# Entry
Amino acid sequence: MTAPGFDPVKFKAGQRALWNSASEVWSDLPPEFAAGARLLDRELLRLSGLRRGQRVLDVACGTGDTALSAAQVVGDSGSVTGIDLASDMIAAARKRADDQPHVEFRVADADDVELAPGSYDVILSRWGLMFSADRPALFRRLRELLTDDGVLAAVTWGPDHRSPMMTLGGTVLAARLELPTPPPGAPGPSGMVDPEKIRTEFTGAGFSAVTVAEFMVPFSVSSPQRYAAFVRDMSPPMMQQMLQQRFGDAGDPATWQLVAAAAEPYVAADGTVQLPSSTNLIRAVR
# Structure
C-alpha cells in the first residue's frame, strides 16, 4: 500500500524521465560504485542458485549489469530477459549485449508488464523492486511468472542511517534544493528498508521460504573531495539542471563543499572515506 495522496501516474512519468536522463551515468558507473554493484550481482546469482540452461527475468534491469552477468551463467542453452520502463536504459543495455541471441531487453514497466505465467525459472532484481507503485500486486505478478519452485532473488537498500553511500550526498542536495520529503511508504530508494515488512509482503503474495538478510557493501572512496565528485558524477542531468537554476551553476562550490563535509565523519586513519552500506538480500520461492 502506498501513502495517501500518492499519484502513481505522476510518479511513473517522473521515474521514466529521471532514469532516461541517468542512462549515460549508469552505463559507465564510477569505479567506487561499480565495485559494490558487481559484488551484489555475485550475491544475487549465488542466492538464486542460477545454473546453465535456466530462463531468467531481470526486473528494472537498467543498463543490463545483472542480466548480462546472469547470461554468462545460463549460457546459450538458457535465456535472459531484462525489462525496464526507461527506454534509454534499455537502449544502453541492448548495445552492451552485443547481439547475444539468448539475451533480450524490453521497454516495459514491471507493474503492468504482460508476460506468460510460468515463463521463468529465476527472477532477479538489483535495486529495482522498491520503485514499484504497488508492491503487493507486483509480487503476486512476479510469483505467477515463475515456474513451480522458481526462485526470486533481489536486493534493496537498507535503512537510510545505515546506507551512507546512497543517502549522504542526496540528503545534502535535497536540503540545498529544498526538495519535499517523500511521504512514508512512498516508493523510492528507501521504499523497502524494513526486513520484517519485506517478509510480510512476499509471504502475503504467496511466496514461501522467504528470507531477508542484511548484506553490508564495503563502499570506499579516496577522500571527501572524491566523494563529492562521485555524487556529482552520479547526479542525473535533471538534478544538475535544478542546481543550475537555483545557484546559477551546477558546480556551485558551496553545494559540493557541503557534500564533502558530510563525508568527513567517515574518514579512516589512512584518509580514505569508508561508507559500508546496508542492503537487504531477499530470496523467495514460488
